[in-house]
């Protein structure tokens, strides 16, 4: 690509150049491709880890594949470049490079979006921003109701479509790539080698590298500026900084290699697009192998946590043989039993470890604020702590304080006459639990879903999903008179239907009213009781214990060490 090693008569070579340098480029391409495939497979096998789920690996993989295809073409350009038609080079550079950069931007921009959206979990209001659906929506309202990934993909696909149109338009109007048609004045003259050299430069090529230059010099610095002060534990900020710095030189050096005559001796061995290839190679390192390294670090820290838990359990149980089990399943099963003790304290004895469930539960009860802030601003998993806190508040409000049996059934509401107070408590409890499900579990309402197993998710969905659909207007009973019209929201005094969700007048009138203003008057499932969240709660607690909690403890220890060092320096 852009390689013009002509003969003395101005004719192009008739064979590929497989010399020592060409062999090196071939070996480098094969080796790096195999290593990259290994990294992609490693991430794919661990894709269910929370730290990888939040990244949107499909976009990252798509970007890396397109950019790597261009990278291979560039690395082998030294070998077959003089034999390739300029039109083929133009299409490779006009499609693979900008399309790959577009997908990479869609993937990397999630960093800023996730960081901004996680800030909601450090305030008092930890509910979803989603509103019940209304009768009609304008195009702007429909656009705003889309999730971030859908909107970003729509914008990126629009940009890719525009780039495709622009590439096709310039290819058709320029006679550099074909002599039979095009705008007069764009043709090139001279020997075959001179024609190829002239066709490899010009304004037709500039849009292909514009997006790479635009991202490295403008978009990435803006993202980093807006995310200043954020130091995440997932390596996302480091990735953005690395990719930004790696891309700064690419377009300027490509232009210098093409238009500065003094670069001709270098271009014989290092063709101009290889400056872009260096940027792509570094981008692949930060996009694929940095997350791989973070996964390995996380697995090591997680194993350390499991071993600490096992040692602590062995000491408490008086395990005389000293055997320690660090198996994942056995550690999880040991915490499956519900733990309801309020005000749990942690002994300062050396026999207790801070990396235990007791320590985590003590923090959640006594001082969850710092852990909540760390999980939201640094670990990007604030939904887990918020989910646990909401469940604790719900249980404290409806069961522990009021003294109602936690295993009460709604059968009394349907078959046996009961007091109005108990009926109100049951319905209020279900409505509050429904909001928790919508905000953290539902695939329709939760901005950040907690990472539950399929069994726990199906259990909760079986109890709450139908009610959630009614609340959001996805499942509604049509009016027989107007069967094709979406039913509107009804107020409390105008509806007694068990299949109709209602909204308060204030919530209907206000565009900013949260979903908490919605009342559900449908049928309460028989399976609903005070234990409905127990399995999900313990699952998320275990997830926090083995993911966020060790990072939090490590960060606090580091902070305490720094403060102690500063205090000793001040006193000295």
From TrEMBL:
<feature type="transmembrane region" description="Helical">
    <location>
        <begin position="57"/>
        <end position="78"/>
    </location>
</feature>
<feature type="region of interest" description="Disordered">
    <location>
        <begin position="485"/>
        <end position="510"/>
    </location>
</feature>
<feature type="transmembrane region" description="Helical">
    <location>
        <begin position="234"/>
        <end position="255"/>
    </location>
</feature>
<keyword id="KW-0812">Transmembrane</keyword>
<dbReference type="InterPro" id="IPR036305">
    <property type="entry name" value="RGS_sf"/>
</dbReference>
<feature type="region of interest" description="Disordered">
    <location>
        <begin position="316"/>
        <end position="350"/>
    </location>
</feature>
<feature type="transmembrane region" description="Helical">
    <location>
        <begin position="209"/>
        <end position="227"/>
    </location>
</feature>
<protein>
    <recommendedName>
        <fullName>RGS domain-containing protein</fullName>
    </recommendedName>
</protein>
<feature type="transmembrane region" description="Helical">
    <location>
        <begin position="275"/>
        <end position="296"/>
    </location>
</feature>
<dbReference type="InterPro" id="IPR044926">
    <property type="entry name" value="RGS_subdomain_2"/>
</dbReference>
<feature type="transmembrane region" description="Helical">
    <location>
        <begin position="90"/>
        <end position="113"/>
    </location>
</feature>
<keyword id="KW-0472">Membrane</keyword>
<feature type="transmembrane region" description="Helical">
    <location>
        <begin position="152"/>
        <end position="173"/>
    </location>
</feature>
<keyword id="KW-1133">Transmembrane helix</keyword>
<feature type="transmembrane region" description="Helical">
    <location>
        <begin position="22"/>
        <end position="45"/>
    </location>
</feature>
<feature type="compositionally biased region" description="Low complexity">
    <location>
        <begin position="320"/>
        <end position="331"/>
    </location>
</feature>
């Amino acid at each position: 690509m852009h390689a013009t090693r002509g003969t003395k008569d101005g004719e192009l070579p008739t064979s590929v150049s497989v010399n020592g340098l060409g062999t090196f480029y071939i070996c480098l391409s094969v080796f790096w491709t195999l290593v990259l495939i290994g990294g992609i497979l490693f991430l794919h096998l661990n894709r269910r880890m929370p730290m990888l789920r939040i990244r949107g690996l499909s976009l990252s993989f798509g970007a890396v594949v397109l950019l790597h295809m261009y990278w291979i073409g560039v690395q082998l350009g030294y070998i077959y470049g003089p034999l390739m038609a300029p039109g083929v080079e133009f299409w490779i550079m006009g499609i693979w490079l900008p399309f790959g950069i577009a997908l990479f931007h869609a993937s990397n921009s999630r960093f800023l979006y996730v960081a901004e959206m996680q800030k909601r979990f450090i305030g008092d209001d930890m509910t979803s921003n989603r509103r019940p659906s209304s009768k009609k929506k304008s195009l702007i309202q429909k656009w705003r109701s889309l999730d971030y990934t859908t909107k970003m993909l729509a914008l990126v696909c629009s940009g890719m479509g525009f780039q495709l149109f622009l590439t096709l338009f310039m290819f058709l109007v320029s006679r550099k790539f074909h002599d039979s048609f095009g705008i007069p004045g764009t043709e090139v003259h001279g020997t075959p080698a001179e024609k190829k050299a002239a066709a490899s430069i010009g304004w037709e090529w500039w849009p292909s590298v514009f997006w790479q230059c635009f991202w490295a010099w403008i978009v990435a610095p803006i993202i980093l500026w807006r995310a200043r002060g954020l130091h995440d534990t997932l390596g996302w900020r480091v990735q953005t900084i690395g990719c930004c710095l790696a891309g700064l030189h690419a377009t300027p050096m490509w232009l210098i290699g093409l238009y500065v005559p003094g670069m001709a001796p270098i271009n014989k061995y290092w063709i101009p697009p290889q400056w872009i290839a260096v940027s792509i190679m570094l981008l692949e390192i930060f996009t694929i192998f940095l997350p791989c390294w973070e996964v390995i670090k996380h697995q090591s820290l997680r194993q350390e946590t499991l071993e600490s838990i096992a040692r602590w359990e062995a000491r408490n149980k008086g395990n005389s043989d000293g055997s320690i089990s660090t198996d994942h399943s056995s550690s999880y099963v040991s915490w499956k039993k519900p733990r309801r003790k309020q005000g749990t304290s942690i002994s300062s004895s050396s026999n207790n470890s801070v990396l235990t469930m007791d320590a985590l539960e003590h923090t959640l009860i006594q001082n969850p604020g710092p852990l909540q802030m760390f999980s939201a601003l640094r670990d990007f998993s604030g939904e887990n702590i918020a989910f646990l806190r909401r469940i604790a508040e719900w249980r404290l409000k409806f069961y522990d304080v009021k003294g109602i049996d936690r295993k009460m059934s709604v059968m009394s509401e349907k078959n046996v006459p009961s007091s109005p107070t108990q009926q109100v408590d049951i319905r209020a409890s279900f409505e509050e639990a429904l909001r928790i499900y919508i905000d953290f579990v539902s695939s329709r309402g939760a901005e950040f879903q907690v990472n539950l197993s399929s069994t726990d998710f199906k259990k909760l969905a079986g109890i709450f999903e139908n009610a959630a659909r009614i609340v959001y207007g996805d499942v509604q009973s049509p009016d027989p008179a107007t069967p094709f019209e979406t039913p509107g929201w009804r107020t409390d005094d105008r509806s007694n239907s068990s299949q109709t969700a209602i909204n308060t007048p204030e919530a209907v009138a206000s565009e900013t009213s949260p979903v908490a203003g919605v009342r559900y008057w449908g049928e309460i499932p028989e399976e609903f009781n005070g234990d409905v969240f127990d399995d999900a709660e313990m699952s998320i607690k275990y997830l926090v214990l083995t993911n966020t909690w060790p990072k939090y403890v490590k960060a606090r220890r580091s902070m305490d060490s720094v403060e102690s060092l500063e205090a000793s320096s001040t006193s000295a």
